[in-house]
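User: Run a structure prediction on this.
Assistant: Running it now.
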Amino acid sequence: MRRTGIWQKVTWLLLLILWLPTMVYAGNDMENSSYWMITPSGVNGVDIQIPVYDSGGLDGFVDKGYLYITPEGGAKETVLYFYSKQKDGSNCSVWFKKSVDGEMVLSRDNGYSSISISSSEKNCELSQKSGTNLYYIYVNWIVPDKYRGKRCQFSWYIHKHGNKSADEKDIKLTPSYVTFTDTPAPIKDCMDCTRLMPLIT
């Protein structure tokens, strides 16, 4: 009886070893806060790095993503809404729109052209960043005057989906803080520049 019991344990152990390699889950690189970056850019802008798709394992992707800004002493506002879907082939697509004022431009890896982000939803195709499992969008935002001279918190709501229902979950990310100067936005229109020049008599 004891020998039979030992062989049963060995059999179950062998079956477990054979079964473990089939336990493949969606990629989880995007669950690391270090991949979601908010960095100051220029006088009053921020560069935003967002991984929207992870091709590791059975794939994982953001099916509902929000970036928020909360000025010190103020209310939280939505900056950007974005999401992706199950990709078909080597590239994936992402959809996005902004909910704030200020110039906002999206750029991508591998030589794709930049896109101006507006309050109307747009979408574009992404390719995988070389040497990683991730597909990124990069956003540059020039903040409007109401945030200038203030310390602002940037926070996220990210819901991740994958090829298995067990991979569906909210991702908790560390917020970032940026203090903007009170320098007004640069004047780009030459007509505006001439209006500000003193009259020569």
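DSSP finds two helices and twelve strands in the chain.
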